[in-house]
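call fold(seq) -> tokens
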Amino acid sequence: MADYACIKWSHAAKSELVRLNKLQKRACTYILNKKVKTFTDLTNAHIELNLLFFDNRVCYFTLIMVFEALHNLTPPYIYDLISPSLNDNYSLRSYSKGNLNLYTISNTNYFKRTLSYTSINVWNTIPPSIKASDNINTFKRKLKAPLNSQI
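ret:
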């Protein structure tokens, strides 16, 4: 439902995100044919449908896009938005963890809402064991477990 352009929707105004969350809640009630009154009911509905909350869905699709870019599964301009740590000379934690570098630092909110900024920040939060996945299916499977546990 909200998967189409999910990454782009993450930078929408808060009022629009509230509308998307309400839409997702309505869809859960319709699919399960149950009333969802409390947050616990909503959480149980998401678990029953194996559905992530919208914020987690945004992280999920952002991380998939970064993984695909790092493995040359996207157009080159996507890869140009991110930059892996390429420091072989020093034994840095960022290099051994597979982190991405943010070369331009800006204090403006405009820059903080860009794809390159958010994707790098989200990528650097996941464990190295997930980053070291061999293929996209393994990556998705490993990634879904921690995001589901955040519900």
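The mean pLDDT is 78.
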